[in-house]
Specification:
The complex is a heterodimer of chains A (368) and B (501). Chain A has 368 residues and is mainly α. Chain A contains 14 helices and four strands. Chain B is of the alpha/beta class. The longest helix of chain B is centred in the last third of the chain and has 16 residues. Classes of the chains: A mainly alpha (368), B alpha/beta (501).
């Protein structure tokens, strides 16, 4: 016990002395939160749209005004079609809209009136946005204009978003960033510490001293677990107090399940560093095994449902997947007990299996 | 109670890489309690492996091993309480302070924490709140030693504690250790320094994993110089041959009187002067030695002289070319061997040689000729396809030297080329160096071995960034009133310390 405490104390002294661990634990999460809040926007793209008006009528001027006033579209008027297309080629505008000379005449005659939209196909997402915006703006203009057709009977779908009424992507995205942060601390930080002992030769001195594997295992688990939980508390403070994101769930449940997730992550980190005795290799391995799956395969960025079935199945085995789905619902819908318990059980079992492996893999001697 | 023997070893075997690499070969050895033992052996002879087996850090493949009456395999934890072990890298946490390191190791050994006496003993009392990483090499060694001494071990195992340490620190360390083992502890000290080995109760010479001599050092030879000759004889002897490196060397035409000149070199970090007004001139074909304690500024001077570090002021000229103004042209005249092994560890010997040939602008037939020449000179035939990282240290140093001289440079900079290398390889190295100098190559060299420094034509003694004495080895000895260069070195430095205090 005394040895374990000595070990934990030593580890904390090292954490405090080493600015990089504090950066990973506190500066990085803040940075990620800012990027997720202000940098990434999955909802809407701001489109620069070029418009060439061949019609020139009063009604069309109203239409152009609607484009100019829309907050997702920045309209640029062109007098010359060549200029507009050359700007499209140079990516100065993402869409080129041509209003044909007979546009208002055809509408007045009650005929169908086409608009020509050329979009930059290099970015498929943007094409979809451009197309959507243009047709919505044109449609709503039509309803208000004197050409409005008589309302036809039919199905009218009105969408409402459960749990996230404004369909504000940040509310789903920002909590997920916790998963990325906790993975970084759990895996990257811990992966570095054991390999560092090997690299600097202190492991040899430790093994020569009266130290058992259990001391090393507990002595490495506890400090990084505590740092991870502190970092979580810090991130929660930033999210709730500074970004003022609503939180529907229970703090107790959040911290308990996070603790389980951290337990599993620290385990992965310790396994990596007990196998790889080189700090550089250990950090590469933890980025590839820890960070990338947490970002790309947990449903933070890419929806799991749109993955091929093999990968969907694979994501089920990764701790971040369970944690991301838990934390999203905890933030937006409150505790969903059935899912929470299932995820917790999985994380607990995984974490326990990892710690057994860590114990087995912890060196007793230099060669075995 | 346990018998009078502290360590008993019978037919001990240990191999690595699935038996391909035999480190300890059927070795038998008995060490009595309370003895001080110098463990001597060439690099790769099995010294470190033997110490690690005794300590229970490695599992033996076969044989009998008893340490302090215990079996290191079964009773590793109990045994750990009785042994103080200092690995080659000291095992210190660089980001903890001196005191924190001590406290940590004391906690591991479950002993008291009255360190004041120990710290005073190591001369570290004033530095207990300094980070271990910020200590000088000699101080780190002393801290490593007192960490190993916590809990009053019965057996003290020190793995090459004096590698790369200057004579002053080395003397102090040896004195400290002998002081502590007075009260009946057994000491095993592995070393490559013959003069140290000569001061122990017993010496054990091992070669290729076997004990080739065990006995009182005085029985083998009366003094350390002839002791070294005897040890070399035991190891199979060294026959001085004509240096092929010098024979095949093509000395370029030179007209400069001074091939290497340092002109008021200064390197300042903040308000700390690593090097202060360093000036010297070296003639063609001269071997010029830079000597000084760790941290005196030798390596910094070296790096500035070959354009790897920018001087704060002053400059250096290589074959008359200014290193600051025209670094590339000056470096073209230069062969440089760094203190740390700076070849590619995961490239083979051949690939390293080929790479450096290319880096010196040798291609095609000239490259093949240069690589072939180096292979022949240094005997790389058998290991051409081995990764450089797997070579024994002596071979690594040979490869570094090969890469430094393959383009026939008229000036050679060697930064501690023989550190940690066994006596025979050192002899071979100096044969190359002196023969090259006779051909007209100018050599600037740093070393910690005082007997090596005798081979230099002139020596500059470096202390705290300044030259405190220059001259031929005989002049320096005369000036300090000393018989050996080591004594002269210690006297001059202690004199400087007194002046400063």
């Amino acid at each position: 016990m005394k040895i374990t405490l000595a070990f934990i104390k030593k580890e904390f002294l090292q954490i405090i002395r080493d600015p990089s661990s504090l950066i990973i634990a506190f500066v990085l999460p803040t940075l990620l939160l800012f990027i997720y809040t202000y940098g990434i926007n999955l909802d809407s793209a701001n489109i620069r749209l070029g418009i060439k008006d061949d019609d020139g009528g009063q009604a069309v001027a109203e239409l152009i005004k609607s484009f100019e006033q829309n907050r997702f579209v920045t309209a640029a008027l062109y007098g010359n079609r060549e200029d507009m297309y050359s700007d499209l080629t140079r990516s100065r505008i993402q869409g080129a809209l041509t209003i044909p000379s007979d546009f208002s005449r055809r509408l007045a005659a009650g005929k169908e009136a086409p608009l020509l939209l050329v979009a930059d196909g290099a970015n498929i997402n943007q094409v979809a946005y451009t197309q959507n915006y243009v047709s919505q703006i044109a449609e709503s203009w039509l309803q208000r204009s004197r050409f409005a057709p008589a309302p036809a009977a039919g199905v009218n779908i009105e969408t409402r978003y459960q749990y996230n009424q404004n369909a504000d992507g940040r509310r789903a995205l920002v909590p997920s960033s916790l998963a990325v942060t906790m993975t970084l601390i759990g895996i990257l930080l811990t992966a570095l510490v054991v390999s560092r002992e090997w690299e600097r030769g202190t492991m040899e001195a430790l093994l020569a001293a009266n130290i058992r594997p259990i001391h090393i295992v507990v002595g490495k688990y506890v400090p990084y677990f505590i740092v991870g939980m502190l970092s979580l508390a810090f991130s929660m403070f930033v999210i709730i107090a500074l970004f003022r994101l609503p939180f529907a769930g229970s703090y107790a449940v959040l911290f308990l399940v996070s603790a389980l997730f951290l337990y599993a992550s620290v385990g992965i980190g310790l396994i990596i560093s007990s196998v790889l005795h080189d700090q550089l290799l250990a950090s590469m391995a933890s980025l590839i095994l820890g960070f990338l799956p947490a970002l790309m395969m947990s449903g933070v960025v890419f929806p799991i449902l749109s993955m091929p079935s093999f990968f969907r199945w694979l994501t089920k085995l990764l701790p971040p997947t369970h944690y991301v789905s838990f934390i999203k619902s905890e933030f937006m819908a409150g505790t969903v007990w059935q899912n929470t318990l299932a995820s917790s059980l999985f994380l607990l079992l995984l974490g326990f299996a990892f710690s057994l492996l860590v114990y087995k893999k912890t060196a007793r001697r230099l060669d075995a | 109670m346990e018998g009078p023997n502290c360590i008993e070893i019978k037919n001990l075997c240990k191999t690595f890489a699935n038996g391909r690499n035999i480190a300890v070969d059927n070795l038998s050895l008995t060490i009595k309690k309370g003895q001080t033992v110098g463990l001597i052996g060439a690099d790769g002879a099995g010294k470190t492996t033997l110490l690690r087996l005794i300590d229970g850090l490695l599992l033996p493949d076969g044989g009998f091993l008893s340490v302090c009456g215990l079996d290191p395999v079964k009773d590793k934890e109990t045994l750990a309480q009785k042994i103080g072990y200092m690995p080659q890298k000291f095992g210190l946490y660089e980001d903890l302070t001196v005191r924190e390191n001590l406290e940590f190791y004391a906690d591991l050994k479950n002993t008291g924490k009255d360190f004041d006496e120990m710290l005073a003993f190591a001369g570290l009392g004033a530095f207990q709140d300094r980070l271990a990483g910020k200590l000088s090499g000699g101080m780190k060694q002393k801290l490593g030693l007192i960490c190993a001494l916590t809990g009053n071990p019965e057996l003290l195992l020190l793995d090459e504690p004096s590698v790369g340490v200057d004579p002053v620190s080395r003397r102090e360390l040896l004195k400290m250790v002998k002081e502590t083992v007075k009260n009946n502890a057994t000491l095993v000290w592995s070393t490559a320094y013959m003069d140290e080995a000569h001061g122990f109760d017993t010496v054990v010479v091992i070669d290729k994993g076997r004990v080739i001599y065990q006995g009182r050092p005085g029985d083998l030879a009366p003094d350390s110089r002839s002791f070294e000759e005897k040890v070399i004889e035991l190891m199979g002897g060294y026959q001085k041959k004509e240096s092929l490196a010098a024979k095949n060397f093509i000395m370029p035409e030179t007209k400069c009187k001074y091939t290497v000149e340092a002109v008021d070199l200064v390197k300042r970090y903040g308000d700390f002067y690593a090097v202060r007004n360093n000036s010297f001139q070296i003639k063609k074909g001269e071997i010029f030695g830079l000597l000084g304690p760790n941290g005196a500024g030798k390596s910094t001077s070296f790096k500035m002289m070959c354009g790897l570090a920018k001087p704060t002021s002053g400059t250096a000229r290589i074959m008359g070319t200014d290193i600051v103004k025209n670094a590339a042209a000056a470096r073209a005249h230069l062969g440089y061997m760094a203190q740390k092994f700076s070849l590619y560890p995961n490239l083979s010997v051949r690939q390293n040689l080929e790479f450096f040939a290319g880096a010196y602008g040798l291609y095609g037939s000239r490259e093949r000729e240069a690589v072939g020449r180096m292979t022949e000179i240094f005997g790389f035939e058998k290991s051409l396809n081995d990764d450089a990282r797997d070579l024994p240290l002596g071979y690594k140093q040979r490869l570094s030297l090969a890469c430094a001289i393959m383009h026939n440079p008229p000036v050679l900079f060697l930064d501690e080329p023989t550190s940690g290398v066994d006596v025979i390889t050192r002899r071979e190295f100096w044969n190359h160096i002196t023969s090259l100098a006779q051909k007209g190559v100018t050599v600037l060299i740093t070393t910690h071995f005082m007997d090596e420094a005798e081979f230099c034509d002139r020596i500059s003694l470096f202390y705290k960034g300044q030259t405190i004495a220059t001259g031929t080895p005989d002049r320096l000895k005369e000036k300090a009133g000393a018989k050996t260069l080591e004594e002269a070195f210690v006297n001059i430095i202690l004199e400087q310390r007194e002046e400063a205090a």
